[in-house]
Amino acid sequence: MRADYVTRPREQIAGVLRAEPRFLSAAEIHRALEQASARVSLSTVYRTLEYLRSKGDVTERLDEAGESTFMLCEPAHHHHHAICRVCGRVDDVSCAALGQIAESLRATLGFELDGHNMEFLGTCRSCR
Amino acid sequence: MRADYVTRPREQIAGVLRAEPRFLSAAEIHRALEQASARVSLSTVYRTLEYLRSKGDVTERLDEAGESTFMLCEPAHHHHHAICRVCGRVDDVSCAALGQIAESLRATLGFELDGHNMEFLGTCRSCR
DNA sequence: ATATTTGCAAATAATTTGCACGTAA
DNA sequence: TTACGTGCAAATTATTTGCAAATAT
């Protein structure tokens, strides 16, 4: 589970992700494949998602229930997400204010910031 | 699993959380109880953590592996956490800049913000 | 007295893994 | 040809649940 072989399951899974720009669980992807008459095993879905994640093509997110969900999204430029609670639509959000926050954490807590997670939840423009 | 009965398991579990101001998994709490010769079943740990969470006494966090972890922390005033990668120590961080972020999301994306998660990771003062 | 909590063992559910077979290179 | 990927079924792991016995009120 390392080399970049181009296989049908990998293409089909990438196709589902490309068609649906929101976070999907392995089971949702598997269901989408079934509906498209693509016979791919659930284990292959898991293995392929891990492969894509390790390549940096896919972002993983733990949803409220603790399930892993995935979305095509190269994190080349570090950024965060505004996730619509209604439709799941995801917009990218940059983190401009982070420098100030890092400085404030260092000054008030002596805390050396080296990573962060931010998520914004709400309602997107088309769901209002 | 609702009423506020004061039972020994509940007191013992709260005791472990009080003694350890960082996020602990159900299994870690269970192990701590064993070491203190407190015989409490793992299911009771789970049920009690859910009870404390529903009361608002405990905050739940999904760690990197997707496991649930818990910490005593009434979210009376909404805030976030600076978590030390070395020792797990947690400091509270307020979210003062959120108003501006909400305004910016509304203006640029038409996104109506109604919730957010932020986590800051790094090294605390005593672990540097 | 009686409503609630607990312990235990069994059930779930998401995810991972071993292995024989299929496939891309 | 051969290293890698896939499918299947079984294993693993965190978490939940049913129920009879114990406990708090």
Structural class of chain A: alpha+beta
Kindly state the number of beta strands of chain A. Answer: 6
Instruction: Give the class-level CATH name of the largest domain in chain A.
Output: Mainly Alpha
CATH architecture of the largest domain in chain A: Orthogonal Bundle
Dominant shape of chain A: globular
> Biggest interface: chains and residue counts?
A-B, 31 and 31 residues
Instruction: Encode the helix/strand succession of chain A as letters.
Output: HEHHEEEEHE
The major β-sheet of chain A equals: 3 strands, antiparallel
Oligomer: homodimer
Unreliable stretches of chain A = none
Mean pLDDT of chain A: 92
Count up the domains of chain A: 2
CATH-defined fold name of the largest domain in chain A: Arc Repressor Mutant, subunit A
Major sheet strand order of chain A: 1-3-2
The CATH superfamily of the largest domain in chain A turns out to be Winged helix-like DNA-binding domain superfamily/Winged helix DNA-binding domain
Helix content of chain A: 25-40%
**What Rg of chain A is obtained from the alpha carbons, in whole angstroms?**
17 Å
Task: Report strand % of chain A.
Answer: 25-35%
